[in-house]
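HUMAN: Would you supply a protein with fold tokens?

ASSISTANT:
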Amino acid sequence: MESVEALNQRLKDYYGIDTVTTDPIFRIVWADDQVEKRLVEYLDTGIALLFPEVREVKKYPYLKGLYVLERLVVIPEINAKDLPASKVSYEPLWAYRDARDNPLPPIWEATKFVIDALYAVLGKKSLVKYVDTEGTEEARQMRVEKLQEELFGNETNTGDALAHNQAVIVPRNYEKAN
């Protein structure tokens, strides 16, 4: 598995940087470490403030213990009062987790697929590079299964139990004692 630093360098090399801020257009970050300055009306304790103030808050309080793919975007004018500290912001594009919210490691193939799919929807690029080039149905199916595994991981109850050391394994040649 590639390190996050190596993946971020590939994202910078492949998709570029913002010419004004020189920040990469896409980046992978640890969700728990991300904070942002927001205009808030309540303290953490729930007490209402007389006047809203700018405070540093967790960016992803709903995402814990996983990596997030972010995209650099210009803050719309209507939201500028909520994020007064800057004109651009990294916004979440993809959280590296399976259907049961178990964290998955970031990998290049899945990351590139998500970004290219976004660009295809925006009409900026085409997914033509993902046209099947395999000659057989079996080869295509193997490629699709590999991509699903990279994007979503092993989502079976048995696989989860094995991964979290909660499974009991009985050998095939086990014979019950009388």
User: Anything to note?
Assistant: Residues 137-152 form the longest helix (16 residues). The chain has a mean pLDDT of 82. The CA atoms of residues 113 and 130 lie 9 Å apart.
